[in-house]
Amino acid sequence: MADDKEIKALLQLLDDPNDEVFEHVSENILKQGENIIPELEKVWEKSLNAILQERIENLIQEIQFSSTQKQLKEWKESGAVDLLKAAYLIAKYQYPDLKYNDIIEAFNKIKRDAWLEINNNLTALEKTRILNHILFQVHKFSGNSSNFFAPQNSYINHVFDTKKGNPLTLGIIYISLAQELNIPIYGVSMPRNFILAYIDEYNIHDPYKDDVLFYINPYNNGKVLGEREIDYFLKQQKIESKKSYYSPCSNIEIIKKLILNLIYSYEKLGYPEKVNDMKKLFNIVN
């Protein structure tokens, strides 16, 4: 990071009418990363120049987006372990001031309630019933069927706030909750749907290959399903059956699906810039 003098000099040149000067200045400002944002905000507040304010807004957006890209890349390269963290990074695109702590606080309230009820003597079905009770009855989460394709349904902070989401975001909360409580529940990526699989924990070597005891539909209050229901769904949708539609998928697959949802939502709404940004995020995890 440049020293205070250099930063002051850069900020003073931000309203230079010469495009080449401005380009050189913005390049240097972008290199400073998120630390320079408070300084940019101060200049914005003091200025009455609309062009300068717009330049600053664009720079802040660019800095925040490149930081999100960098963090998503780090998440993937460090093993893609924390699903909630990745969902938060995707939400940070639309809500740049969002703090991870806000997500964790909301999540921990649910986790505390579930932790008090769960113990190791319960069967898989009993544990699932408790998770369902905590998520869908105590905390009142539900599927947003009236506005299914709205991009907000794919932003995890919005889902925590409104208690309404799509199969994917509700599934991400469900999986994160289960795994925090050492319950082997994983996502299953199907075309046009997303469900969860409860793995046989007594036969667990590799969760992505092992026996599924049953499936859970996070979009329908955690309804328990068997293979027959998946067969029926695929037949109904005229989709050829594949083994992967019955088996747990990786966290990266889940986040790819989340980003594809947003690409679809923004295409429907006619936001080409947001579609392009989402494609950049998709390329990072793909």
Protein model, in words:
The chain folds into 2 domains: 4-77; 83-285, no CATH class. The protein is built from 12 helices and 6 strands. It has helices spanning 4-12, 19-31, 37-46, 50-77, 83-94, 100-117, 124-138, 156-162, 167-180, 227-236, 251-269, 272-285; strands at residues 142-143, 164-165, 185-190, 193-199, 212-217, 223-225. Strand 3 and strand 4 (193-199) form a beta hairpin. It starts with a helix and ends with a helix.
Essential attributes:
286 residues; alpha+beta; 2 domains; 4-stranded antiparallel beta sheet; two-stranded parallel sheet; 12 helices; 6 strands; 59% helix
**Could you say which structural class the secondary elements and strand pairing correspond to?**
alpha+beta
Number of domains in the coordinates?
Answer: 2
Distance between the termini: 31 Å
Q: What coarse outline follows from CA principal-axis ratios? A: elongated
- Which H/E pattern describes the elements? HHHHHHHEHEHEEEEHHH
- Main beta-sheet annotation: 4 strands, antiparallel
How much is the radius of gyration in Å? Answer: 22 Å
Strand order of the largest sheet: 3-4-5-6
Count of helical regions: 12
As a percent range, the share of strand residues is 5-15%
Give start-end ranges of low-pLDDT stretches. Answer: none
How many beta-strand segments?
Answer: 6
What helical percentage do the residues reach? Answer: 55-70%
Mean pLDDT: 92
